[in-house]
Structure formats: structure tokens, C-alpha cells
Write a structure and sequence with these properties.
With about 200 residues, the protein is mainly β. Helices cover about 0% and strands about 40% of the residues. The protein contains no helices and 11 strands. A 5-stranded mixed sheet has the order 6-7-3-11-9, with no helix packed on it. A 4-stranded antiparallel sheet has the order 5-4-8-10, with no helix packed on it. A two-stranded antiparallel ribbon has the order 1-2. The mean pLDDT is about 80.
């Protein structure tokens, strides 16, 4: 019988030696020139090895944020919902255990590593990513997918660029607006205002 592989592994079968051929069927034949595991053909012992192969892998989820000014950050309700095979579900939030990196361009990357998850397709979807006082670049996807191979790694990368919104108050005194570039003789009530 082939033993079980334990958590995260399955047994591929019996092998003649660690790097030997896989045994097929129920009979093992050894002749005088056979390379028997253990290195001694004269002790009448054939050593078989059960080969364990992984059934799980590692997911790396990253979220890179740019454009937020000063102490502005993602909202408290921000989360990344990760779903995968066999009903897998996980909600990632930013906390003290989250790896945080400040990049050279001033953007911030948050990283989560999830180990021991089954092979298959995974999707990461952002939730509550709107930041008050900012607009988000709509070309940035809020959902990404990747295939995870057994024994391998896969990356789910999310990027959001934000732009600060400014509020401008214009005061009209005695029915007129004054300022650089404004023609007081123009009776229109629409003006173009540039904020730097």
C-alpha cells in the first residue's frame, strides 16, 4: 500500500531509490547489474521510497497605492477578498502584521503571503477602496486572477492611483469678481479657475 502524503502533499507512488525509477505493478525485478537503492545487491534487500509531491502552493497578494497625500490612507473598511478552488475564501486587511514598503516614487505597497493553499485559479477583489477627497484612476483594475500550480507560487497584484480633489470657493462682492486674468468689463458669470 502507498502511504498518505500528509497535509499539503500526496504520494506519487513507490520508487527504486530517491531518484530511481517508479515501480509499476506489484512486482519488482532486480538482476545482478541492477542499481538497487541502498547500493548492495547481495543483502537481498530492495529499498523502496514513497515519493511525496506537493498539492498546495503559496499566494502573494500585493496592493500598491499612489497619489495619497500627507497622512491620507486607505479607509478602515478596505479589504481584499481572495477566492479560489474548493470554496477557498479569505479576507485580507491592513494591520500590524501586513508587510508595508514605501517605494522610491512615494507609492506604498502592502504585501500578504498565503501559504499552503490548494492549486488552482485564484481571484483577488478589492472592497471599500474609495478614499474621501480623491478620485481613483478608473483604468486600474479592482479584480485580478492567477493560476497557482502545486508546489509553486502565484502573484495577485493590485494597483490604484489616486488624484486629490480640491474645493475652490469664489466670493462675489457687489456683483463682480476680480482677480488676475479677469476682465471686469465682461458681464459673464462663468470663469475658468485653475488650481495648482
Amino acid at each position: 500500500d502507498v502511504p498518505s502524503g500528509g497535509d499539503g502533499y500526496t504520494v506519487d507512488g513507490w520508487y527504486l531509490g530517491i531518484n530511481g525509477d517508479k515501480v509499476t505493478g506489484n512486482t519488482v525485478s532486480v538482476n545482478e547489474t541492477s542499481d538497487v537503492a541502498g547500493g548492495d545487491k547481495n543483502d537481498n534487500v530492495i529499498r523502496l521510497y514513497a515519493k511525496h509531491v506537493p498539492t498546495t502552493g503559496t499566494l502573494t497578494v500585493t496592493k500598491t497605492v499612489s497619489g495619497l497625500e500627507g497622512t491620507d490612507t486607505l479607509p478602515n473598511g478596505f479589504a481584499i477578498a481572495v477566492t479560489g478552488p474548493n470554496g477557498y475564501s479569505n479576507s485580507l486587511t491592513i494591520n500590524d502584521d501586513t508587510s508595508t514598503t514605501t517605494n522610491e516614487d512615494g507609492s506604498i505597497t502592502y504585501t500578504w503571503e498565503i501559504t499552503g493553499v490548494p492549486a488552482g485559479e485564484y481571484t483577488a477583489r478589492e472592497e471599500n477602496y474609495a478614499v474621501r477627497g480623491y478620485t481613483r484612476d478608473e483604468t486600474n483594475s479592482t479584480s485580478v486572477s492567477a493560476d497557482l500550480a502545486a508546489g509553486g507560487t502565484a502573484e495577485l497584484e493590485l494597483t490604484n492611483s489616486y488624484t486629490k480633489q480640491y474645493t475652490v470657493t469664489v466670493t462675489v462682492v457687489n456683483g463682480s469678481v476680480t482677480g488676475e486674468g479677469i476682465d471686469a468689463s465682461d458681464d459673464t458669470d462663468t470663469y475658468e479657475i485653475t488650481v495648482n
